[in-house]
């Protein structure tokens, strides 16, 4: 009986029924398409949230989330959620950037003030180019699997990136510390949907800091104007 069983297992029909391995997807062409799409980005809404940790904006002020809209090449409207360490309190700061001019609400009064755009710790008006450079800087990318994200079929890609290559997205990023990066890219059109950054990017980061960037309403019309009431 054992011989009969072995013969059956080795028969051609048995071999035909053997499970077939899934084809391996090369990450490089997927990332190339994502870069091309980001280079042509016209507008998007976004949120950059800290799942763990926070980002120091200035001594005593830590950012926990930033969200808003961008109209490329030179307009953005964002809300920064931050924590003041002493006295401990939570604040929201609204920022509108139009070309070389920025408008920012006062932490305490909420009044709009005009400030030079270069004085801000970040400028997200060029978000498309910023993200294209980040995607292009990924080291040893690998497709980790498929995932349906907000109703979109995506490929999940993992890799490493040097912390200094994130400076346009994360204020104060520097050095060659390698951090983990995961991307969710639309399988159909190559549009970037989500980025997960795990690790210390800024010297003041906790070692287990995790940042989560989500893009939505990609290339949808958006109008961003200067605030009506401005001081300065």
Report the structural category: alpha+beta
The major beta sheet can be summarized as:
12 strands, antiparallel
Relative helix content: 10-25%
CATH topology: outer membrane lipoprotein receptor (LolB), chain A
C-alpha termini separation: 94 Å
Q: Give the strand tally.
A: 12
Structural Rg: 23 Å
How is the topology of this model organized?
Elements: H1 2-9, H2 12-16, H3 27-39, E1 43-52, E2 55-58, E3 61-71, E4 75-84, E5 89-98, E6 101-105, E7 112-116, H4 127-136, E8 139-149, E9 152-162, E10 178-186, E11 192-198, E12 210-216
Antiparallel strand pairs: 1-3, 1-12, 2-3, 3-4, 4-5, 5-6, 6-7, 8-9, 9-10, 10-11, 11-12
Tell me what the structure shows.
- This protein has a single domain, classed as Clam (outer membrane lipoprotein receptor (LolB), chain A).
- It is 16% helix and 43% strand.
- The radius of gyration is 23 Å and the shape is globular.
- Strands 1, 2, 3, 4, 5, 6, 7, 8, 9, 10, 11 and 12 form a twelve-stranded antiparallel beta sheet that branches.
- Helix 3 (27-39) packs antiparallel against helix 4.
- It has helices at residues 2-9, 12-16, 27-39, 127-136, and strands at 43-52, 55-58, 61-71, 75-84, 89-98, 101-105, 112-116, 139-149, 152-162, 178-186, 192-198, 210-216.
- It is built from four helices and twelve strands.
- It has 232 residues and is an alpha+beta fold.
């Amino acid at each position: 009986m054992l011989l009969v069983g072995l013969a059956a297992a080795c028969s051609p029909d048995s071999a035909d029924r053997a499970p077939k391995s899934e084809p391996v997807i090369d990450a490089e062409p997927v990332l190339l398409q994502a870069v091309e799409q980001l280079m042509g980005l016209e507008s998007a809404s976004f949120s950059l949230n800290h799942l763990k940790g926070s980002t120091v904006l200035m001594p005593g002020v830590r950012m926990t989330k930033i969200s808003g809209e961008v109209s490329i090449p030179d307009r953005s409207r964002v809300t920064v959620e931050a924590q003041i360490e002493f006295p401990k309190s939570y604040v929201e700061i609204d920022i509108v950037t139009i070309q070389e001019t920025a408008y920012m609400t006062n932490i305490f009064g909420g009044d709009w003030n005009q400030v030079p755009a270069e004085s801000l710790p970040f400028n997200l008006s060029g978000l498309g180019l910023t993200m294209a450079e980040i995607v292009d800087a990924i080291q040893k990318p690998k497709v980790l699997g498929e995932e349906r994200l907000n109703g979109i079929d995506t490929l999940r890609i993992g890799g490493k990136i040097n912390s200094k290559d994130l400076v346009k997205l994360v204020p104060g990023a520097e050095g060659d510390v390698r951090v983990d990066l995961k991307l969710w890219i639309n399988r159909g059109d190559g549009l970037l949907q989500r980025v997960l950054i795990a690790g210390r990017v800024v010297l003041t980061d906790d070692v287990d800091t995790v940042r989560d960037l989500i893009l939505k309403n990609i290339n949808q019309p958006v109008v961003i104007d200067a605030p009506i009431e401005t001081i300065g």
